[in-house]
# Entry
Amino acid sequence: MKIVEQIKLPIKKEMELFEDKFEDSMTSKVPLINRITHFIVRRKGKQMRPMFVFLVAKMVSDGNFSERTYRGASLIELIHTGSLVHDDVVDDSNRRRGFFSLNALWKNKIAVLFGDFLFSKSLLLSIDNDDFDLLKLISIALKEMTEGELLQIEKARKLDITEDIYFEIIRQKTATLIAACTGIGAASVGAEKEEIDLMRQFGQYIGIAFQIKDDLFDYTDAKIGKPTGIDIKEQKMTLPLIHTLNNCSEKDKKWIINSVKNHNRNKKRVKEVIAFVKKNGGIEYTTTKMKEYQNKALNILNPYPDSEYKESLISMVNYVIDRKI
# Structure
């Protein structure tokens, strides 16, 4: 059995029911919207985000559950799906998870409008059910996701990202949505603010570890479905590169920056940069940092009594850094 399926076992029934509820949350009187919705639901990924919502909700409430938890998971998926649709337009990407992206099939105008539709549905789902606490948590995430993307674009132009700025970018771009999942999971079953904040911190640590792992893939020789060096090609300064820049000679630093800025389309030059990063400890340092965040997340779970939900969350944390894609 695949690791994700094993993790999902304690909430298998809830996840199956959630698929129908999520599709219902996107329904419209406009046939085109429903066709696009059907297209998206059929191409779902691993569904890690609703899994985080459900497992945290079950762990902090001794297995209890409510309709609010389903709404919280739908809220997350509406926002996440809408942001992915918009990302594909911004990045001019024609593929998503091995399939044609929405904008490739229906063009940019329809893709942007459909993303807007999903955002509005998430607002209404919360407001119609007085889930204002859940709405606040997802609104924080959406604001930070946008800020993180813009901060990265701004810094990419100058290539002056420090390690602190890198961590702020990935906290906002990636970790904030995982933090919303875990926070909403706790809030949906009536947890106190202190516990909600703790679960948000748990999700943030996982999200940071997840993004660091993604950044490491850019330096791997394994077949992961995307070519290596793509971050360098896009002038994204990730942790392996940042650490190497901070610990090499001025001459080498100038060569790396010149390579990223002016020769990022040159495959041979990109391979040389990757080799230099590997040789100068960039991968080891980044892996150490990733494991630090993994341990921070696991330490938050330690005080909770043993349960199948806690075990699945531990497996989720470990899967984030052990995954091959």
